[in-house]
Amino acid sequence: MEIRLSDISKKPCSDYYNYIIENYGINNYFNPIDVFNYMKSTHAEIYFDVFWLIKNCKLCNTLELIDYAKSLNPGYSKVSFLISSNEVCQTPEMVKYYFSLNPNKWDILWLKKATESKVVKIAIRKNLIRKRFKSILRVFAPFVSKLR
User: Fold this and answer.
1) What pLDDT score was predicted for residue 22?
2) Please, which residues have CB within 8 angstroms of residue 134's CB and are 6 or more apart in sequence?
3) How far apart are the first and last CA of the chain?
4) Are residues 37 and 98 in the same domain?
5) Domain end call among 27, 56, 73
6) What DSSP assignment string belongs to 10-31?
7) Looking at the DSSP assignment, which residues form a beta bridge with residue 30?
8) pLDDT for res 28
9) Last residue of a domain, one of 28, 52, 73
């Protein structure tokens, strides 16, 4: 994937902007993942920068960049923010990934209220049911094994 600065709706912070101008020029294409990989050394929580780009550049609303964001291992609260603020991330797959991070009940409630997406709300409901079912199975597993 390659984009230009003009593809981004808002100007990036000065660190990114200066790096892109110095290395690619104002109108040339660049790969944002290459830029993020370079900036990892100076930006501690780079997933916020990736989330920002996903939100502010239509060309970056791709599975490739979302998978890159996941590879940075953000916590569940960061993923809930990504889901709530980016329509492209409001999918059952992203909610399933979010639940795989074991969010606390307060964060789940926040996400449910923060998003208007029916898809997300249904996916949250399904994942909560699945989570409850698994906990019920854990409780009854010792009894079932004794019956065998």
Assistant:
1) 93
2) none
3) 56
4) no
5) 73
6) SPPPHHHHHHHHHHH-SSS-B-
7) 3
8) 92
9) 73
Type of residue numbered 124: I
Give me the pLDDT at residue 86, please.
Answer: 83
CA 112 vs CA 48, 123, 147: distances in Å: 21, 10, 40
> Do 61 and 86 belong together in one domain?
no
CA distance 148 to 145: 5
Q: Which residues of the chain have pLDDT under 50?
A: none
Residue 43: strand, helix, or coil: coil
Statement: the pTM of the whole predicted model exceeds 0.85: no
Task: Identify the pLDDT of residue 144.
Answer: 59
Residue 110 in contact with residue 83, Cβ under 8 Å? Answer: no
Residues comprising the chain, all counted = 148
